[in-house]
Each structure stands twice: as structure tokens, then as C-alpha cells.
Amino acid sequence: DEVVCMSCGYRCPRDEVHDRCADLNPGFQKYTAETAPDGDADLDVDFEDFRLADCPKCEGILKPDVVF
After folding, report:
1. Origin, by domain of life (predicted)?
2. 3-state secondary structure of 29
3. Which domain holds residue 60?
């Protein structure tokens, strides 16, 4: 599983981005939720302060590199 930067094309493993998000948001990993039948999960948490990991090369937006 990889992610790709939408600006510069940089690629890295999804696990690397997961680890960076965990480092940027200490305390969020303690929250758990059951998955609903439609795949969603409801958490009673304010995500306003959640920080996303950006591209380490250009600070661009990262997205999963998925082909359907």
C-alpha cells in the first residue's frame, strides 16, 4: 500500500504516513469505534485539532495510490 503526493508525485508506504499522523496527533490512537454495516465508524471525538501528514518533499496533499 502506497500514498502519492498530488503535487510532486512523491511516493511512500502508507504505514509511513500512518506513523507520521500518529506522531502529529498523540492521544488519538486511544480512541476506538466499532465499524458500522456501511463501513463508517462514529466517534464521539472533536477532530478539529487533528493534523494530517503532508508530503515531506513539497508539503503537498497525500492520497492513497489506489486503482479500482
Report:
1. Bacteria
2. helix
3. 1-27+49-68
In this structure, which amino acid lies at residue 27?
Answer: G
User: Scanning the structure block, which residue is given the C-alpha cell 503526493?
Assistant: 5
DSSP run (H or E) holding 26: none
pLDDT computed for residue 17 by the predictor: 96
Q: Are 41 and 33 in contact (CB under 8 A)?
A: yes
Cell of 31: 480512541
- Using CA atoms, how far residue 45 sits from 30, 51, 53, in Å, is 11, 14, 19
Query: pLDDT digit string (tens) for 5-29?
Result: 999 999 999 999 999 999 999 988 8
DSSP state of 34: P
In a domain, 44, yes or no: no
Higher pLDDT, 50 or 32: 50
